[in-house]
Amino acid sequence: MYISSIGQDSHRFESQDSSKPLILGGVIIPQCVGLKGNSDADVVLHAITNAISGLSGINILGKVSDDICLKHGITDSRVYLAEALKTVSDYRILHVSVTVEALRPHLADYIPAIRESIAQLLSLETAHVGLTATTGESLTGFGRGEGIGVFAIISAQKNVSNCKSIL
């Protein structure tokens, strides 16, 4: 059985005087201020985490991530993603496609590194990680440079040994 799930997340930028780094897909983007959030606010990994939650029906971002962040001081979104992956042991992730909407930063030079990072985190070949970016033609706050919005779609296959027969 095959299944797909979509995840979305968005964050505003910190103020220009913030020293918080911008992290997208586990990759630090230099010379760009970070995003607001309790965690590192890695909007790409948050969207992927939400898509995985769509597969399992178990929400990680919210109570679980808040407990990890606020009670244990862990702000690394890779940890939240790892928690989400634990909830889908019955599935093998086949492909992830991510779309980023943002006026800044210009991501073309960082796309290969972000794809590789996501591939490692999901145990995929890089060829099975799609990443596109758009400015959105200034139609939204993301396209006007106020923050970053991300959508992620995951395709997965239920492990055959865990499938129930419909006969």
Structure notes:
The longest helix is centred in the N-terminal third of the chain and has 14 residues. The model has no long low-confidence stretch (mean pLDDT 93). With 167 residues, the protein is of the alpha+beta class. It has one domain: 2-C-methyl-D-erythritol 2,4-cyclodiphosphate synthase (60s Ribosomal Protein L30, Chain: A). Strand 2 and strand 3 form a beta hairpin. Helix 1 runs parallel beside helix 3. It is globular, with a radius of gyration of 16 Å. It has a four-stranded mixed β-sheet. The protein has four helices and six strands; from the N terminus they run E-E-E-H-H-H-E-H-E-E.
Strand order of the largest sheet: 1-6-4-5
What oligomeric arrangement do these chains adopt? single chain
Rg of Cα set: 16 Å
Structural class: alpha+beta
Count of β-strands: 6
SS element count, helices:
4
Would you identify the regions where 5 or more consecutive residues have pLDDT less than 50? Answer: none
User: Could you give a short account of the major beta sheet?
Assistant: 4 strands, mixed
Assign the CATH class: Alpha Beta
